[in-house]
Amino acid sequence: MASPTLTPYSQLPDPNQVLQAPRKLQYCPEQDLRHRVSIYFQQVLGGWHTKFATKLPEVMPLWGKVMVCGGDVVHTSFEIQRLQKSPRTTHFQYHSQYKVTYHGEKEQAITAIRYGQLKKILVCKLGTQALWRDMKASTQILAVIRSCCATSAN
Question: Which of 88, 108, 135, 137 lies deepest, with the highest CB count within 10 Å?
Answer without folding.
Answer: 135
